[in-house]
TrEMBL record:
Keywords: FAD, Flavoprotein, Oxidoreductase. This is GMC family oxidoreductase. Pfam families: GMC_oxred_C. GO terms for molecular function: oxidoreductase activity, acting on CH-OH group of donors. It comes from Sporosarcina thermotolerans. Residues 437-552 form the Glucose-methanol-choline oxidoreductase C-terminal domain. PANTHER family: LONG-CHAIN-ALCOHOL OXIDASE (PTHR46056:SF12). InterPro entries: FAD/NAD-bd_sf (IPR036188), GMC_OxRtase_C (IPR007867). The lineage of its organism: Bacteria, Bacillati, Bacillota, Bacilli, Bacillales. Belongs to the GMC oxidoreductase family.
């Protein structure tokens, strides 16, 4: 029997970056907020003395248990979908703090072009530049409109950086200065400037200096230990919900976190949601949590799945192109890269930070002419120095034997004498790429798993080769003696790690016919339901998504407050008209 609990103002499903930001902003205004998190609780002490590469980086201590819940995958609708049973392409975090606990800290603002990609592409190159099956859309918000929320997020997190010469304008400088320039970064800087490019130090959520944010949260500077991605930061130098927004929300006395709470359904009555039903995974008890506003702030797949299971919104139909829930799933293009081996130079590759590196954006967005190219958009090119831990890294030139004395000798020779320059390309949305419920595979409750249908397209192959050639040219200018270049992009393989940058499925826009949420991430169909996170991206840009998730979370929080103050209603006027090709 379901036990009905006292009503709260807001219930949040998922307590990561998006949930933490919204909880912080709403509780400061006096609203009562309950946060439901499917995983365990965490505290800073959990990160102490946790530099264990095998436990965290290889065996995925901080990730979701795929034997209990996973996704299914297929490349196209003709294939049979199968469950992902071991980690490969991406890593699904779980527990209080979400992916914000184990991310690297690589933090970006999307380019102005990214938010109006469809209209700007047509304006400059004509509608024929966009393939018929490519369903890219404008976001329903411009860079200038989202910029204040980027600024708010960066001040909270203490983002370290310097101006991007080819990025959008900033209302304020970064709250902290750029990270240190290592020897490898200096070499990249000099080489790219010689090539007429525009390098800058990567924006980082790893603090370059001690910092106190506007909420009074003080954190210390990064130690460059190299244990960021897949690890919690024991110093608190890496911006993490546990050391930024969640303490603020808890200090108000208006926020309650309930870990081990598996939300199974959103409850709906007419055109309003009334709360959620969840299971306490420790006791097996089922509870109803009523609320005036429900906010989905879980990961992309969970946001989509919960809406589909709750029969809220119109499921996407890839045959007709109608519907919105599950539409425009997109990923990231990470195969275009080159590794240079240096016979006379050595670098301290084991030191580093998750957000440490040098970048050029000359080939990102529409910063270069695409007239004679068979793709749109592009990607950043980065030399990152995240810290090469010993178990997972052993770079040797092509043609080297993979065992024996020569293998050992070459491995030792290039242990600190190899550098990788990588392209991180944008991922466009296509009619045939989507999320839905798997008709065969179910979770322990008997509910269908979420299914991904996705593959790389010719756009992605062309972009990969283009970025790879640019990476190789930079390494030549840097003086590498041997260069191995990755230009080929085969079928998408869910078993091979690439990035955790999954996006789409509950996309934002200005037209309810082609988007699920408005620019405040409020559902068009249900005005007291907000769906926040990278699930709102209509397609993915040539950057990591977290900074944009943070900015959208602050805008959504502002929207929820407006919703309460206005006693309900839609916050944005819908604009009718075809938004995609």
């Amino acid at each position: 029997m379901v036990k009905k609990l006292p009503k709260t103002d807001v219930v949040i499903v998922g307590v990561g970056w998006a949930g933490g930001i919204i909880a912080s902003e709403l509780t400061k205004k006096g609203y009562q907020v309950v946060g439901l998190e499917r995983g365990k609780d965490r505290k800073m002490e959990d990160y102490f003395m946790a530099h264990d590469e095998l436990r965290y980086a290889i065996r995925h201590e901080m990730m979701q248990d795929l034997s209990k819940e996973t996704i299914t995958f297929r490349n196209n609708e003709k294939m049979r979908s199968l469950p992902m049973r071991q980690y490969g392409s991406f890593l699904l975090g779980v527990g209080v703090g979400g992916a914000g606990t184990h991310w690297n800290g690589q933090n970006f603002r999307f380019l102005p072009y990214d938010f109006e990609m469809r209209s700007e592409t047509i304006k400059k190159y004509g509608a024929d530049k966009i393939p018929a099956d490519m369903t890219i859309q404008d976001w329903g918000i411009t860079y200038d409109e989202i910029e204040p929320y980027y600024d708010q997020y960066e001040k909270m997190a203490g983002i370290s950086g310097e101006d991007n010469p080819l990025g959008g304008p900033r209302s304020n400088p970064f709250p902290t200065g750029p990270m240190k320039k290592t020897q490898a970064m200096q070499l990249f800087d000099k080489a790219t400037k010689n090539m007429g490019l525009h390098p800058y130090v990567q924006p980082s959520a790893n603090l370059s200096e001690n910092y106190t944010n506007p909420d009074g949260i003080s954190r210390v500077a990064c130690q460059y230990c190299g244990f960021c991605e897949r690890f919690g930061c024991e110093y608190g130098a890496k911006a993490d919900p546990l050391v930024t927004v969640l303490p603020v929300a808890k200090a108000t006395g208006n926020f309650e976190v309930r870990p081990h709470s598996e939300v199974r359904r959103i409850l709906k009555d007419g055109d309003k949601v009334t709360g959620v039903v969840y299971v306490d995974m420790n006791t097996g008890e089922e509870f109803e949590q009523p609320a005036d506003v429900v906010v989905l702030t879980s990961y992309v797949f969970s946001n989509v799945r919960l809406l589909l299971l709750s029969e809220i919104g119109r499921p996407y139909n890839p045959t007709t192109g109608t519907g919105v829930i599950g539409k425009n799933y997109a990923y990231q293009i990470r195969k275009g890269r080159a590794t240079g081996f240096f016979d006379e130079q050595k670098f301290n590759n084991f030191a580093g930070a998750g957000g440490l590196g040098m970048i050029v954006d000359d080939y990102n967005g529409d910063n270069f002419d695409h007239t004679d190219l068979d793709f749109i958009h592009g990607g950043m090119i980065i030399l990152g120095q995240t810290g090469l831990r010993p178990i997972a890294n052993n770079r040797i030139p092509s043609g080297t034997p993979t065992w024996g004395k020569e293998f050992k000798d070459v491995s030792l020779k290039y242990t600190n004498a190899a550098l990788t320059v990588s392209g991180e390309g944008a991922s466009m949305a296509y009619k045939q790429h989507f999320l839905d419920l798997d008709p065969v595979y179910k979770d322990p409750f008997g509910d269908p798993l979420v299914r991904i249908t996705f593959d790389f397209e010719e756009q992605d192959r062309q972009l990969t080769a283009f970025l790879a050639d640019k990476c190789e040219a930079i390494l030549k200018e840097m003086g590498a003696d041997h260069i191995d270049t990755s230009r080929e992009l085969g079928p998408y393989n869910v078993a091979e790690y690439q990035s955790t940058h999954n996006t789409g499925g509950v996309i934002m826009g200005a037209d309810p016919e082609t988007s699920a949420v408005n620019s405040y991430l409020q559902m068009w169909d249900v005005d007291n339901l907000f769906v926040v996170g990278a699930s709102a991206f209509p397609q993915n840009a040539g950057y990591n998504p977290t900074g944009t998730v943070g900015a959208l979370s602050y805008r959504a929080a502002e929207g929820i407050i407006k919703f309460f103050e206005n006693n309900g209603g839609q916050l944005v006027e819908a604009k009718k008209g075809k938004q995609h090709v």
